[in-house]
Amino acid sequence: MNSEFLEALKDLEKEKGISVDVLLEAIEAALLSAYKRNFGSLQNARVHIDRETGDFKVYSQRAVVEEAQDDRVEISLEEARKIDPRYNLGDMVENEVTPRNFGRIAAQTAKQVVVQRIREAERNIIYEEFSNREGDILTGVVQRIENKNVYIELGKTEAILTPSEQMPNEEYRQGDRLKAYIVEVRKTTKGPQILVSRTHPGLLKRLFEMEVPELQDGVVELKSIAREAGYRSKIAVYSKDENVDPVGACVGPKGMRVQNIVNELNGEKIDIVKWNQDPSKYVASSLSPAKVVAVEVWEDEKVARVIVPDYQLSLAIGKEGQNARLAAKLTGWKIDIKSESQMAELYPDYHDQADLNGSREDYLTDDYVEDYNSYPAADELLEEDEK
Predict the structure, then answer these.
(1) Which residues of 229-346 form beta strands (DSSP E)?
(2) Could you tell me the CATH superfamily of domain 3-129?
(3) 276-387: which CATH topology?
(4) How many Å apart are CA 181 and CA 137, to the nearest integer?
(5) What share of the chain is helix, strand, coil (3-state, %, to 5)?
(6) What's the pLDDT score for residue 351?
(7) Distance CA 19, CA 51 (A)
(8) What gap in Å lies between CA 150 and CA 252, rounded to an integer?
(9) Is the peptide bond before 192 cis (omega within 30 degrees of 0)?
(10) Is the pTM of this model over 0.90?
(11) For domain 137-197, which architecture applies?
(12) What Gene Ontology molecular function terms does this protein carry (predicted)?
């Protein structure tokens, strides 16, 4: 080793961000291991690399004791003071024992250490870069598909899209360009492992934040998301600014903003509803596109009964209960949906109590609320659902 080698290490420090001192310490440790392995030495030893010239030397180390039992690791106080009168018990006496043909082994070992440290540094850089991006979106190209896992190329590394995180209606082909949500970044012996998802609700959230400037600026808030990936999603949005329509902002001019997201998600339908602090109004809007006649809530149990026109019942429930299920996920409320005919059977005076043609607007009248105790209560609704 020489000064050129040190210059090369300094260049690596600038390019890869690996400290020269860290590299030299690693090389010293590797050279010591190589020395003991190749020369069968059982003695204590130390390898030192001169930071100015790059020259290396191997030193044997022996402890100063009263009487030496093993000359390879110990030296008597009398012998030590013959070398230097300043030695005392417990000191270490060092002698240079650098083998003549150790240069070739040293060069090979240094190369292996440097290559290994460069690889580790690059892995750490990649890990730090992507671990800080958990919860964000990345864009990559499908590199290959193995055992149903989709590997997405990201330049110096790749991300893994496992079968459980793939959308059921999507087919992935080599060369496809797609966006994915970073779920987790793990450190492994083979480098960082980046796990991504196409089904995570966070993907929908980040796509809206990218498309809607009002969300980025904080003018509009995305309060809640419910998603059945590949089929349908619902989001609830809100704005403190009365002059801003949060739903319109997310839909965009001529529906372009939401349409871009629908295209990215291969046709997944998206309902955008306005969040409301009043749970009855929030639950009613969550069942969009169905129209709601009235809502009664039990706040302690977070249960809501929703009344819809007869012709809207199937729309409110949705195919295989999907609309009602997503509305429940979105609001966090248990929702029981009844048609007006069903309500009339349960409560004969229903049509008299509720103003079906005018002031009902979408919610129960005061008289209707007063007599509502004759209906099954929230705990009965829960028991009915469990059956």
Answers:
(1) 232-239, 269-274, 294-298, 303-308, 334-339
(2) NusA, N-terminal domain (3.30.1480.10)
(3) GMP Synthetase; Chain A, domain 3 (3.30.300)
(4) 5
(5) 45, 25, 30
(6) 57
(7) 13
(8) 33
(9) no
(10) no
(11) Beta Barrel (2.40)
(12) DNA-binding transcription factor activity; RNA binding
